[in-house]
Amino acid sequence: MARKTFDASVTDFAHAVGLLIRHVRAAAASNELSWTESAVLGRLEREGAATTAELARAEGVKPQSMGTTVAALEELGLIVRSPHPTDGRQMILSLTAKGAEVRRNVRSQKHIWIEQAIARLDKQDQETLFAAGEIIHRLVENSLAASPLEKSPVEK
């Protein structure tokens, strides 16, 4: 059997990671939040209260689009608006107790799915997968430190 080219291997790897991400997301899809809504809840949980404009910049969307997302989350009772402490023209958004609970449930559902999927692998595959996780972590850290336009080692 012919060995795959580096390019084909990269493509297969990216496809496999994409499938994993989609399945993990699907495991928590019962909360029926959009990707942006989930991202906003996660950001508010990790970084604390923010304005709509700050969330829009952080998520790379237009303020009007973020306004729609914020309105939906507010209607669901997952976030709450309060006056900005220094700028009376702005409102600060933060998670409600219900929003924090939804975040915990989503994380738990994702963790359970991946834990069960990994448990179905034999011990050797589990060890290989965990080692690959460490390599992926380094890959991401190294790519953040490198210039995005830097040529790959294969191209040099």
Folded structure, characterized:
The protein is 65% helix and 6% strand. The chain has helices spanning 6-27, 35-47, 52-59, 63-75, 97-119, 123-145, and strands at residues 79-83, 91-95. The chain is mainly alpha-helical and 156 residues long. It has a two-stranded antiparallel sheet. The longest helix is centred in the C-terminal third of the chain and has 23 residues, at 97-119. The relative contact order is 0.10. The radius of gyration is 20 Å and the shape is elongated. The chain is built from six helices and two strands. It has a single domain (26-145), classed as Orthogonal Bundle (Arc Repressor Mutant, subunit A), CATH 1.10.10. Helix 3 (52-59) packs across helix 4.
| Helix proportion range | 55-70%
* Overall number of strands: 2
Distance between the first and last residues' Cα: 28 Å
Q: How is the largest sheet built, in terms of strand order?
A: 1-2
Main β sheet profile: 2 strands, antiparallel
Q: What number of domains?
A: 1
Low-confidence residue ranges: none
Determine the number of helices (DSSP H or I, runs of at least 4 residues). 6
CATH class: Mainly Alpha
CATH topology: Arc Repressor Mutant, subunit A
How much of the sequence lies in strands comes to 5-15%
In the CATH hierarchy, the architecture is Orthogonal Bundle
What number is the mean pLDDT?
A: 89
Helix-strand blueprint:
Blueprint: H1 6-27, H2 35-47, H3 52-59, H4 63-75, E1 79-83, E2 91-95, H5 97-119, H6 123-145
Antiparallel strand pairs: 1-2
Helix pairs in contact: 1-5, 3-4
What characteristics describe this protein?
2 strands, 156 residues, 6 helices, Arc Repressor Mutant, subunit A, single chain, mainly alpha
